[in-house]
UniProtKB/TrEMBL annotation:
PANTHER family: MAJOR FACILITATOR SUPERFAMILY (MFS) PROFILE DOMAIN-CONTAINING PROTEIN, SOLUTE CARRIER FAMILY 2. It is found in: Membrane. The lineage of its organism: Eukaryota, Metazoa, Chordata, Craniata, Vertebrata. InterPro entries: GLUT (IPR045263), MFS_dom (IPR020846), MFS_sugar_transport-like (IPR005828), MFS_trans_sf (IPR036259), Sugar/inositol_transpt (IPR003663), Sugar_transporter_CS (IPR005829). It is a multi-pass membrane protein. It comes from Poecilia mexicana. This is Major facilitator superfamily (MFS) profile domain-containing protein. Its main location: membrane. One of its GO terms (cellular component) is plasma membrane. GO terms for molecular function: D-glucose transmembrane transporter activity. Belongs to the major facilitator superfamily. Sugar transporter (TC 2.A.1.1) family. Residues 34-477 form the Major facilitator superfamily (MFS) profile domain.
Amino acid sequence: MPKEYVDEYEPLLVRGIKDKRRLKLPNKSLLLAVFAACVGGTFQYGYNISVINAPTMYVQNFINQTWMQRYQTNISQGGLTLLWSTIVSMFTLGGLIGASVGGTLSVKLGRRGTLLANNAFSLTAALLMGLSSTVGSFELLVIGRLLSGMNAGIALCVQPLYLGEIAPTALRGAMGMGTSVFITGGILTGQVMGLKEILGKEEYWPILLSTTCIPAFLQLLILPWFPESPRYLLIDKGDEEGCKKALRQLHGLADSGDALEDIEKEKNNLVGFQAKKPWELFSDRSLRWQLLTIILLNIAQQLNGINAIYFYADYVFRQSGIPMDKIPYATVGTGACECITALTCGMLIECLGRKVLIMGGYVLMSICCVFFTLTLTFQDYSPVFPYLSMVCIFAFILSFGLGPGGVTNILTTELFTQNARPAAFMIAGSVNWLSFFLISMVFPFIVTGLQQYCFLVFLAVCSLVVTYIFFVVPETKNKTFVEIQNEFQSSKRNKFCSSDGAGTILLSTSI
């Protein structure tokens, strides 16, 4: 047997003993590449989610004034609500469109190329929303939000791909946390920019909505200085020299050899296989557990109650005696809380592992659901309960950021090899955006029907996810993509087949 294949046929237990990977500090060039990818990627997703909240009243006044100028009558309350809901929800529709094409673009244009091209949507959106007040057209806001959503959908699909493929195996989790850190950073920045002391005044709302162009310009200035994904260059394009050059820049000369060896093994493992389409993943029985896992985790990420917590935050802050004009500052506190936990998760993920963090996060969220239900039920019995509710809000956000908020995207990267990964992100992204849309449509009815007991529904979701992860999802820390595939294959295979005593692990679940 050729020597280059020997390691792949060894049992994972033996390989684990031989593995000498060490956790090292990332190369400065690698950190800058992560920043460049994230600042114009998922940072914009978080920013556009939160920045629309501050100017709500001002945009509604603009819609009413524009309607009056056009039709010489005030718009009905129902019509105003419908138009505002359309402006907000277009972001979700755009995200779904972006997620459905992001994987295909990442194969055709490359990971870095897609991220750079994606800025066209952001810049166009910023221009349209910035001009909407000047030209007196609220339709430009609808189109702008749709384009912002498309930008976010593509970024959420392609950016984790790029981060996962440029990072060394020992730092893949920490680098992958850049997605979550920059989402929460974008949310916090949007909340801060919407304060009255900055751009939260009525005359500034078009400027506020157009500031999404700033991170786009930053990415266009910085990212071209960094290479394409080395895995994409070698496996998809067959550019060995380009791959070596990219690895030297990202990992440094000393560490580029080990990374190249891992990529070459994955390439040998995928000889004769083309990039899969999303529908091909559904028909591939060898990938069904990985696919089921990312679908369930992405559904749970939206249905675990985090949206309900933000919905109730305003009410709880008022009940706690915080003046109405000070509530925006309390809301900034929730954004800062989530940002801090994302950073904490990034520091812990290579020590504790993915499985411990995501399970621990869902367990803590389950506990918070119970306590939040109780504190809301007895809200009027004692002045202490509103403050306990505030504690539950921050504890829930901390738990979400510590596990599900950050680890879900990393697992989507790690559970698939190169030929299936773009399609997996397309499926995961589409499921995530559809779940986002579903919860935004159904949640008001759940709250109306169950009131504070709606958190018992979210308790059930969190508990079921913990059970599934415990029994099905393997730990992926410090493992190559091929090793993770082999572990999925062997763990499911051993349930149905008796061991032949050879201890051999299949080279690929696709072969």
